[in-house]
Write a structure and sequence with these properties.
Distance between the termini: 58 Å
Helix content: over 70%
Strand content: under 5%
Mean pLDDT: 92
Low-confidence stretches: none
Order of helices and strands: HHHHHHHHHHHHH
Shape: elongated
Radius of gyration: 20 Å
Length: 192
Amino acid sequence: RRVALEHFAKARNTALIPFLRQLLQDRDPMMRRLSLEGIMMSDANEGISAYSRSMGGLDGSELIDWVKSHGEHMVPYVRKALTSRRPAVRLFALDALALLPANSRLEIAQSWVKTTNASDVRIRLLELLMNTNPSRSLVTLQEFSNHQDITTRAAVIRILANSGRGLDLVRKALSDKHQAVQLEALTGILGR
């Protein structure tokens, strides 16, 4: 049964979607996962709808496997997972985002970093931006160097210091009113 479903999932045949949709209710988690993958690969609209409905039963780790297998095709699902209320799913989505091609990674990270309210996600996105394309990310990091969230501000200073860029902002952070930011700046300066 599993082997047949794996072939159905790889077939990318929209005629199989009604059958695969029924298997989303299967008792076996692997069968549900494979049927969801088959729907996602067959039709983008059906896929995002099925993925949205199934997110509560997923732990998020499957997204990493899917990105490794299907690459760019998983972009809408990574975006959707970044909206999850479950922190573990968001963190897996960030790991999956790091595996996408650079252009997709940058585009998603640039848009999400400015809209997310979760500081852990924001910081991971800023790190991802700097690791992907430092020159294109510098402006965004500069914007966040004055962010109201202390954790974000301190992380930006750490990222800038570690990259050797924006050292004027790192020096300026020595006089920040919060010790966490000052400490990151000092560590960055002394570590260079």
